[in-house]
Amino acid sequence: MYIPPYFAVTDQDELVTFMQRHPFALLITTEDGIPTVTHLPLEVEVRGEELYLTGHLARSNPQGEALEKEPDSVLAVFQGPHAYISSSWYAKPSVPTWNYMAVHAYGKAKLISSPEEIEYRMRDLLAKYEQSQEQPVTWVTVPAQMMSGLLAGILCFEIKLERVEGKYKLSQNRSSEDRAAIIAKLEAGGEQEQSVAAAMRILEESRANQVFTKTSR
Length: 217
What we know:
This protein is of the alpha+beta class.
């Protein structure tokens, strides 16, 4: 990912938190020069000094074959809010652009074969995403035969991360006057625009491009 220095996110806690807040990612593998992409949620795990991503996909998904071969490298792309920035908002003539937040995570994948570990991970995933529902689905409320069939139809995997890159392109290269104007315009927009504006406001008072693990100046 092309990252000019003023957009770079280097704090590991910030990168981990970003991936946790935006878990729906793109998993990208390449075989014989042809890229394959799956849209799926990924969990981030910190194991001592190492970072891992875990997830699952349908056994019938052709990308599973690539993961079974333990590819040299896979890429997971996490994206946050983004918004169009009109140059009409600037104090001086310029060109339009797009503000966005993204993290790219690179590593080596391997399949998880233990039935006990697969069930444990799926239990945790169900509990995590159902806990905020009015009538949460629990593991025991799903018929055992149905759950057994579902587990048989998926491949679980983990990715040991080797490199994580973050980029918050939030007008850090513009003047304070321009940034204030951009924030005001975005705050008058929709949910995506307002989320970008909120992140920009936090950056005005943080260091090292930290939005989720802000450190005051």
